[in-house]
Amino acid sequence: METKAATSIFESLSSSWRLEAFRLLVKQGPEGMVAGDIASALDIAPSSLSFHLKALTHAGMVTVEQEGRFQRYRANIPLMLDLIAYLTEECCSGNPGKCVDLRAASSCADALLPPISPK
Questions:
Q1: What is the pTM of this model?
Q2: pLDDT tens profile 72-105
């Protein structure tokens, strides 16, 4: 991933509404959600949600598909994982074995962290 792409993604997630919408879509997985259900779940006006979903779509963080008169949004999970890899690829000078103590200090569940494979 290029720095320019990462910056665009972070800008798209810099709003609490967009971040919550994206997290909700991640939770839904491949099924995604239609816009009206997202608006209801987040208690946000549909017109405001549309603005936020457009920003996420332009950054590539969500995809949208027309289903009759509804629009179904899905989180772009592969792009999210690419962003995480971009952030962590140079951790501890590219030697993840050095990160063991830092990982222990994290509140993130071990199952969610990438495996440590010393170089």
A1: 0.82
A2: 999 999 999 899 888 877 777 767 677 777 777 8
Identify which of 59, 90, 57, 83 has the alpha carbon closest to the alpha carbon of residue 1.
83
Q: State pLDDT tens for residues 58-78.
A: 999 999 999 999 999 999 999
Quick one: 75 exposed, middle or buried, by C-beta within 10 A (0-12, 13-18, 19+)?
buried
Cβ 46 vs Cβ 8: under 8 Å: no
Q: In what order do the strands lie in the sheet with 33-34?
A: 33-34, 70-75, 62-67
Taking residue 61's Cβ as centre, other Cβ atoms within 10 Å add up to 24
Tokens of 63: 């995809």
